[in-house]
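Anyone up for a design puzzle?
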């Protein structure tokens, strides 16, 4: 099976990634790091291998991990999301804080925001990203047609994925940049948009978030029979944030959003 991974997000430790797309199912999986108890250094495995496994196996990989805590204890804390559309639209999130695992099915017909603090929209515990971007992503329904140009396919989502005009130092920014006390830089290094449907998919990538001219298509595919009338595509936007501007995809996923056939799911960090 071939899996298309984030072009900027290859995990050098294990060959993994923060976002993986199965080009034939279609299916997408992505991971965010979070706070919690770290794995023992002598047993630690890279979280970058988990999106590859989820893209290959589907939601059952998340269920299997949930049922095997001895495997989970070899990973630092994370949120792992897998979205599938065949045989039916489904999005599942596995949370691991280093001691406890939890599975959550993301409800259809809603927009969801997941940050490294957890499921923050809809939630009584919204953070600044969720408050600003949740309603805005929910208000727009990009066509995401695999045959369209990137601009026509995503429409207003390109503006939102580009930061929506917020300063990169604001708490609610999804295109972020911070100077750390030790002099290193922490910031968003790329943005991805993925659309899934039973009859096609598209995957677009922006390696320089500050430059809208750098968008390009990684994969755009429509099945031979074509989409059914009135069918919708699932959508994901995903961006990577790392220290010193270096891509550390397995441990530094951020600013992502997902939209299913009948639901919308936004994941940010």
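Challenge accepted. My sequence:
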């Amino acid at each position: 099976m071939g899996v298309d991974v984030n072009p900027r997000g290859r995990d050098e430790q294990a060959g993994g990634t923060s976002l993986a797309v199965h080009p034939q199912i279609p299916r997408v999986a992505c991971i965010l790091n979070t706070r919690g108890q770290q794995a023992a250094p002598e047993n630690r495995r890279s979280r970058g291998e988990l999106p590859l496994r989820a893209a290959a196996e589907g939601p059952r990989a998340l269920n299997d991990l949930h049922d095997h805590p001895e495997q989970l204890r070899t990973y630092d804390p994370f949120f792992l999301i897998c979205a599938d559309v065949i045989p039916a639209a489904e999005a599942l999130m596995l949370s691991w804080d280093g001691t406890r695992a939890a599975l959550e099915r993301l409800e259809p017909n809603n927009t969801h925001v997941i940050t490294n603090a957890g499921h923050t929209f809809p939630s009584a515990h919204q953070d600044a990203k969720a408050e600003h971007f949740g309603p805005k992503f929910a208000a727009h329904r990009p066509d995401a047609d695999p045959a369209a140009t990137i601009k026509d396919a995503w429409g207003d989502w390109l503006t939102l994925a580009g930061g929506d005009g917020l300063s990169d130092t604001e708490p609610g920014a999804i295109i972020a940049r911070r100077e750390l006390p030790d002099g290193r830089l922490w910031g968003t290094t790329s943005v991805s948009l993925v659309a899934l449907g039973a009859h096609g998919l598209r995957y677009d990538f922006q390696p320089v978030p500050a430059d809208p001219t750098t968008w390009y298509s990684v994969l755009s595919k429509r099945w031979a029979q074509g989409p059914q009338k009135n069918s919708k595509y699932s959508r994901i936007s995903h961006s990577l944030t790392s220290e010193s501007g270096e891509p550390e995809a397995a441990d530094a996923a951020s600013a992502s959003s997902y939209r299913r056939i009948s639901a919308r799911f936004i994941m940010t960090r």
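A detail worth pointing out: The first strand starts at residue 4 and ends at 5.
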